[in-house]
Design a protein that fits this description.
The complex is a heterotrimer of chains A (about 180), B (about 650) and C (about 150). Helices cover about 35% and strands about 20% of the residues of chain A. Chain A has six helices and seven strands, in the order H-H-E-E-E-H-E-H-E-H-E-E-H. Chain A has helices at about 10, 15-30, 80-95, 110-120, 135-140, 165-175, and strands spanning about 50-55, 60, 70-75, 100-105, 130, 145-150, 155-160. Chain A has a five-stranded mixed sheet. A two-stranded antiparallel sheet of chain A has the order 1-2. Chain A is elongated, with a radius of gyration of 24 Å. The longest helix of chain B has about 30 residues, at about 200-235. Chain B is of the alpha+beta class and about 650 residues long. A five-stranded antiparallel sheet of chain B has the order 2-3-4-5-6, with no helix packed on it. In chain B, about 65% of the residues lie in helices and about 10% in strands. With about 150 residues, chain C is an all-alpha fold. Chain C has helices at about 1-25, 35-45, 60-75, 80-90, 100-130, 140-150. The chains are: A alpha/beta (about 180), B alpha+beta (about 650), C mainly alpha (about 150). The interface of A and C includes residues 41, 108 and 142 of A.
């Protein structure tokens, strides 16, 4: 028994959903996202090792972070948003300085510039590593300062934050690291 | 007061366009000419209203009225008047206002010109245009109101986007581009009208062809001016980065170009009606998609405007437009069958159609590449990038094939070509091309890509030159006219054909310039102390001094410039600068560009050390770059020649005739 | 002479093509480290700018990556290892050409489908009516037609 052949004039309306449904899905799901947020491949992996001289002239390496949670903040004196987030970092240092180790990476900056910045906006006393060539930052996958990495006690990167941290975001990240905000 | 009036004008404009749409539809069904006339007047009124709203915005910008949020965000007390005025299109809300101005302007122009013609089509053309502009008025009335006020009123505004206030080109390239984008609504409106009234005839095709070419000229110039802006402002020495905003302009250009070619086949052979309709619809929908992509924050782009709530509006409008248009087309599909069969495989028709295939493949590739990151992400993948290396590799071979067709098409006759014709038409162009390639190679052009493009361009130009000479000789013999007069008459009697040739000649110039500038340039990065020199090719640059000062025109901007002395071609003083804008985290480069017929010298200040007074310079020699802009100009001129209204006898011709 | 023009032209074209093929197939000289670095920089996305490669950009991150490419190559890494190094810290996002083969196959498939549709359309057209435009029997006839066409565009 031969099936009656469908003529194209009968099925032509199928073209409409075939075009509109995928396009609509793409447009509307595409809307709900922010393309400028790039997830870091480091999250869930150990923090890359680094070693550099601090502003005080001592040497510091990533190995010294082992044993307790750490916050690695990439900043520069030429970075305006870094000024906005600095009080949040200072506050975290005063309240959680004993539970969490803060480390600054001074990205493509001069020691003088960095010292001026700290003198003006407050020095929390945590080590600030000089990274004039940007090598440490590139290994961390930094696009531009400020960027902050949250590392747990076993040295695994738990989160990366791009842009200036607000007090709320800091509190959320601290909670995620198992610290009371 | 002024901003309130501006807002009021927008709201009344919305009402006017909605009324116009309704009156056009009712009038179209009943044939009530008084109602249709009132609908037209409503559209003229909408144009006047949005023009008033634009003036209100410009007045607010010039008066630094920071009670208007748009002004507070995009203007400062120190902004020079020129940049205040062009800030009208420097950010999202203002650009939609400006867009609406141009869209209603085009609509009014078309409705006025055809007020007494095409009585069956025009009501539906009007209805489509009115609905389209009503959408933009609605966007301004709700999610993207340009006249939103703020309290408390700041004493100082944020200033315009640093990138967009750095070069006067910003006053030229967006208006051209927007004129192209908004104008593409006209062929779409005629397409909808033809589908509704079932009048897809030769007259329709001629009107749509003309009204596709008009915005096409602006789109072409807008794209070229955008590339030039990118070259003159962004400081990386290139002009095309396949950024989403560039792709957004290219996509409708590609489908419109495909339409211009296939419409000639359609006109000559009374065929391809479904296809021409599909291209007209695709072109308009792609202008919307382009606007959506770059304005909704779905993809990141050079000047993606701030993410805002208009994304949902645009996505809905795209789906609705495409749904209605495609639905109409599918509905009428059984009536749009081909009346006549296409020509032979070796014929001008098939060359044109192959051209269409290639244009559509490029359109697909560019759209796919632009959307690929979004697709990867919504299907659960991570972030992906599709950049220039991919776009170049995929599209360059297709563009080369298109260039080849540019020569093949005009050489083949309509219907089908005999072996004798092929032999006669192709032998000399191929020999000329081989000769030029060998000569260029002997003269030291080393790379394969520019040689190949040079050969192809020669082939195309000789084919066209042969055609022109052949035609002029025939006319000269047949009518006893002198050869120059015969040439002018031939061209002005066949404007479309010879305008097309001129446009193709422009494409050849651009192709060679792009191939050469992309492969045969040179560059060097060096850090210099005062008095040191840098040599690249024939140029020697001496670094004299570093100056940091505030701009006289806008004291909020600090300019640090390296003053250099140039020895070699175009010797003299040269300055290249970095500008620090208070609202930009990174300094904006102001490259020094010395343009010459053969090559440009392009110097960017990458970095400087204020204490050691050293500068790091990026110096590029970009060959033939100015021919890219010149070629674009020739393309536009050719298209303009093609659509220029015919006059039987021009003064120039009369003079030639008298002399002959 | 006229009859020989096209064969001569084709022969010249073929000779040129053969010459190009021979030059193209000749093994390219090994790239210097600086050239390799430039090539890799052209394939990596500048992280803190739009649509530009690391090679083209002047931003801080691009400069840092350029320096590191040179360092890694000098340390004896292969270009592929260098690329992987950046993918590990930035993700696939840093590559300007996505790794998925889909991005190559899809445009190629689109081209094939387009050519296929065109061929189908042209064939169908010829089967509708063969006699609409009979092939010209000789060169004179086509010349006349072409001349007429020249005159009326």
């Amino acid at each position: 028994m031969a099936m009656p052949l469908l003529r194209w004039t009968q099925v032509r309306w199928l073209a409409l959903p075939l075009v509109l449904v995928p396009l609509g899905w793409l447009l509307f799901t595409g809307l709900g996202r922010d393309p400028s947020v790039i997830p870091s491949p480091l999250v869930g992996h150990p923090l890359p090792s680094f070693a550099a001289t601090t502003l005080q002239g001592t040497s510091f390496s990533a190995a010294q972070l082992a044993g307790r949670p750490a916050i690695v903040n990439v900043w520069a004196s030429w970075c305006n948003p870094c000024i906005d987030e600095h009080p949040v970092l200072l506050d975290t240092a005063t309240r959680h300085g004993s539970e969490v180790q803060l480390v600054g990476i001074v990205y493509q900056d001069t020691p003088e510039g960095a010292r001026d910045f700290l003198a003006r906006y407050g020095d929390g006393g945590w080590p600030n590593l000089l990274d004039p060539s940007g090598r440490i930052a590139v290994d961390l996958g930094v696009t531009g300062p400020p960027e902050t990495f949250f590392v747990d006690a076993s040295g695994i990167v738990r989160a990366r934050h791009v842009g200036p941290l607000t007090a709320d975001e800091m509190a959320a990240q601290l909670t995620a690291l198992g610290l009371a905000p | 007061m002024i901003p309130t009036l501006g807002h009021l004008a927008v709201v009344i404009g919305l009402a006017a366009t909605v009324y116009a749409a309704g009156a056009f539809i009712v009038g179209g069904r009943s044939g009530d000419s008084a109602l249709l006339a009132s609908a037209r007047r409503a559209m003229y009124a909408a144009f006047a209203l949005v023009a008033f709203a634009c003036l209100a915005m410009i007045a607010s910008l010039l008066g630094h009225d920071f009670s208007v949020l748009y002004v507070a965000r995009n203007n400062a007390t120190t902004t020079p008047p020129f940049y205040s005025v062009i800030s009208l299109w420097a950010a999202l809300e203002g650009s939609i206002l400006f867009w609406t101005l141009l869209a209603t302007g085009w609509a009014s122009l078309v409705l006025y010109r055809y007020r007494a013609r095409l009585p069956a089509l025009m009501p539906w053309v009007g209805a489509t245009l009115a609905l389209g502009t009503a959408f933009f008025f609605a966007v301004m009335a709700w999610p993207s109101d340009p006249f939103v006020r703020v309290t408390p009123i700041g004493l100082e505004g944020n200033g315009p986007n640093a990138l967009l206030q750095n070069h006067p080109f910003m006053g030229l390239h967006p208006p051209l581009l927007y004129l192209g984008y908004t104008g593409m609504a006209i062929p779409f409106a005629f397409g909808m009208a033809a589908l509704i009234t079932r009048r897809t005839d030769e007259e329709w095709l001629a009107v749509v062809r003309r009204w596709t070419l008009v915005p096409w000229i602006f789109l072409t110039m807008g794209i070229v001016a955008g590339a030039w802006w990118s070259y003159a402002v962004l400081g990386w020495g290139g002009y095309w980065a396949w950024d989403p905003v560039e792709n957004a302009a290219l996509l409708p250009w590609l489908t419109a170009t495909a339409f211009i070619h296939s419409s000639m086949v359609a006109e000559r052979r009374g065929t391809l009606r479904t296809w021409t309709h599909a291209l007209v619809i695709a072109t308009f929908v792609l202008t919307l998609v382009g606007t959506f992509l770059t304005r909704s924050g779905v993809v990141v782009s050079v000047h993606a405007f701030t993410t805002s709530g208009i994304g949902i509006w645009f996505a809905s409008a795209i789906l609705l437009t495409l749904g209605v248009a495609l639905g109409l087309l599918i509905w009428r599909l059984p009536e749009l069958g081909d009346r006549r069969p296409p020509g032979a495989v070796v014929s001008r028709e098939s060359a044109f159609l192959f051209n269409n295939v290639l244009f559509l493949v490029i359109t697909f590739a560019v759209l796919f590449g632009t959307l690929y990151p979004v697709m990867v992400e919504v299907t659960g993948g991570s972030r992906a990038t599709v950049g220039a290396p991919w776009f170049n590799l995929v599209n360059a071979p297709i563009f080369v094939a298109l260039l080849f067709l540019t020569g093949v098409g005009p050489a083949l006759p309509w219907g089908g070509a005999s072996w004798a014709t092929v032999r006669e038409r192709f032998a000399i162009p191929i020999l000329a091309a081989v000769g030029v390639v060998v000569a260029a190679w002997a003269l030291g052009v080393p790379a394969a890509a520019p040689l190949a493009i040079l050969g192809l361009a020669t082939f195309v130009l000789v084919v066209m030159g042969d055609e022109v000479v052949r035609g002029a000789r025939a006319r000269s013999r047949g009518r006893g006219e002198g050869l120059p007069l015969a040439l002018v008459r031939l061209a002005t009697r066949n404007r479309r054909r010879y305008g097309g040739y001129l446009a193709h000649a422009g494409i050849c110039v651009m192709a060679v310039a792009i191939a050469v500038s992309a492969t045969l340039g040179a560059d060097k990065i060096a850090t210099l102390h005062r008095g040191e020199t840098l040599t690249l090719g024939a140029y020697t640059l001496t670094y004299d001094r570093l100056v940091t000062e505030r701009l006289a025109a806008d004291p909020r901007v600090v300019e640090t410039r390296a003053e250099l002395t140039l020895a070699g071609p175009q010797s003299g003083a040269l300055t290249t600068a970095l500008r620090d804008y208070p609202n930009s985290t990174s300094a904006i480069a102001t490259p020094a560009v010395r343009t010459a017929l053969g090559e440009d010298l392009y110097v960017t200040l990458l970095a400087y050390d204020a204490t050691a007074k050293t500068v790091t310079l990026h110096v590029l020699v970009n060959p033939l770059v100015m021919w890219i802009w010149a070629g674009g100009g020739i393309v536009a001129l050719g298209a303009l020649f093609a659509i220029w209204p015919d006059r039987r006898r021009t003064a120039f011709e009369a003079a030639l005739a008298a002399g002959a | 002479m006229r009859r020989l023009a096209l064969p001569i032209a084709m022969a010249a074209l073929l000779a040129l093509g053969a010459l190009v093929l021979i030059t193209a197939l000749r093994p390219a000289p090994a790239l210097t480290q600086a050239e390799q670095a430039q090539q890799i920089a052209g394939e990596l996305r500048c992280p803190d700018c739009q649509s530009l490669s690391v090679a083209e950009s002047q931003t801080a991150a691009a400069a840092a990556i350029r320096r590191q490419i040179v360092d890694l190559l000098a340390a004896g890494q292969t270009p592929e290892q260098v690329r992987r190094h950046f993918v590990e810290s930035y993700g696939e996002w840093i590559l300007l050409t996505p790794g998925s083969p889909l991005v190559w196959w899809l445009p190629a498939a689109a081209l094939l489908v387009g050519i296929g549709l065109l061929a189908w359309w042209l064939r169908r057209g010829r089967s509708i009516a063969v006699s609409v435009e009979p092939p010209p029997s000789d060169g004179v006839r086509s010349r006349i037609r072409d001349e007429v066409e020249q005159l009326d565009g």
